[in-house]
Amino acid sequence: MKNIILPIDFGAKTDLLVESCVNFAKDINGKICLIHVTPSDIGFAIGDMGFQYFPEIEQMEVREELKMLSDIEQRIKGFGVDCEHLLKQGIAKDIILEYAAEKSASYIVMGSHGRSNMYDVFVGSLTKSLTRDSKIPVLVIPMHS
């Protein structure tokens, strides 16, 4: 069975990306390894007193994201595709590539939002950096209408 890494950001097109990955996994007899990478600074806020850390906010956010990942995992299993999930904090590209190596993955499946090059200059593109730095194939699914 081939492992497929599927990074999830819980954006508006997540359902479309999951559906496309499920179809791909069925075609190649693959297992989907969901991953969501949350920023390391999720519990920090800036206010009158500068940066403050709120661990209860971080814990609440992580619990909600784990629940959403678990729900997606159950939905994928409902389609007859093996699945597992992982949530980590850190730099998305590095964590995803480490997870792919750890799982001896055959593919990484990513969505492309079809944004302009100007967007990439100022914000960056995780899909673009993964396709550049990955040692395994990255399947890019168009997510724009």
Automatic annotation (TrEMBL):
A matching Pfam family: Usp
Annotated UspA domain residues: 1-142
SUPFAM superfamilies xref list: Adenine nucleotide alpha hydrolases-like
Annotated TM spans: none
InterPro entries: Rossmann-like_a/b/a_fold (IPR014729), Universal_stress_UspA (IPR006015), UspA (IPR006016)
Domain of life: Bacteria
UniProt-listed CDD domains: USP-like
Family: Belongs to the universal stress protein A family.
Listed PANTHER family: STRESS RESPONSE PROTEIN NHAX, UNIVERSAL STRESS PROTEIN UP12
UniProt-recorded name of the protein: Nucleotide-binding universal stress protein, UspA family
